[in-house]
């Protein structure tokens, strides 16, 4: 598990109203009423129960109105901020389905994603789960697994960067919950909006593809803290301090395939490594605060390096204690994952936490749905994970239980669907 990444909040774009259907009003026209109802309930207190919206209803605002764009240079769900709710789902193409069926499926999925990300209902058979909500920063991201290319007769278009990941010593992989022909990442700041999108994507798959595995995750809700700050994971650690930032001059070079890259259909795309990492919380929580901080190499309270300063202060790897030992232990997670300790390897981490209940022995099945992005996993995730394999103090408190690697093409232009340049090239 590489060092946590800095959460970036998405840019908010004003919604454009859609034309009302015959005989009624659009869902968007109802958003103001929905938002005002929520405000009225909050102000009046729990004893009031449900109440009709007042005549002076105000427009939906804050979390619900945030909107990410479907069309663009890159797919959504990569550089946007951490969302409160997420679903990761992999599909396998059905027996007999090939390139033609895959193209039709990606066309359906893209149409659905564009509508739902704009806060609109599906064109038909909408479940109404998200009727009262705005877009809520919904993003839907699509990728292709290694096996997709043989299934569709596109082996010559399979990127070399999509070669299977090597085995790692911390792997305890469940193959039934790993890999897949197609991968979809769904994130939103409202759980119902995220579920609505998940259900829509599943229904759109129809007879062309079936679910291989699906995982649910969460993060802190935007606005839950007094001011924007780095998220925390289920170990209580600040999770996001050294993530590459879009403002850095080499960000695109590290995270996205260049426009001139190979294969050409991956221009402006990225590669997603997906890992279900179980945290052995019972063992972790037995450690003292000082021991936990030594494992990570940072203060639990504010994320500052043990060598001193604030969260963003550069870590002093040479600083020693009075006994001569390094202040930041030699096997500390934050030391090992630093880019300057890994030949400059950098990844953009954008994870979700998960909790899937309590095992029969009382052990929590909880941890991190690790998702990281890079222009080339062989120069990003792989060297970092190999370094962690050789002596990361955190490794005895985590277990990698599922894994996947997916090629995520660049964003769809207006009038295109995601993957069109591959499937129709």
Give a concise summary.
By secondary structure, the chain is an alpha+beta fold. The protein has helices spanning 31-44, 99-117, 146-151, 191-205, 251-255, 281-284, 289-296, 333-336, 381-389, 420-423; strands at residues 85-93, 139-145, 182-188, 209-218, 270-279, 348-349, 352-358, 364-374, 398-408.
Describe the structure.
- By secondary structure, this protein is an alpha+beta fold.
- The chain has helices at residues 31-44, 99-117, 146-151, 191-205, 251-255, 281-284, 289-296, 333-336, 381-389, 420-423; strands at 85-93, 139-145, 182-188, 209-218, 270-279, 348-349, 352-358, 364-374, 398-408.
- Strands 1, 2, 3, 4, 5, 6, 7, 8 and 9 form a nine-stranded antiparallel beta sheet that branches.
- A hairpin with a 5-residue loop joins strand 7 and strand 8 (364-374).
- Helix 2 runs antiparallel to helix 4.
- The longest helix is centred in the first third of the chain and has 19 residues, at 99-117.
Considering the chains and any ligands shown, give keywords for the structure.
425 residues; alpha+beta; 10 helices; 9-stranded antiparallel sheet
Helix content: 10-25%
Biggest β-sheet, characterized? 9 strands, antiparallel
The pLDDT mean sits at: 88
By secondary-structure content and strand pairing, the structural class works out as alpha+beta
How many strand elements? 9
- End-to-end gap: 37 Å
Poorly predicted parts:
2-55
Strand content: 15-25%
Task: State the helix count.
Answer: 10
Shape: globular
SSE string: HEHEHEHEHEHHHEEEHEH
Rg value: 22 Å
**Oligomeric state as shown:** single chain
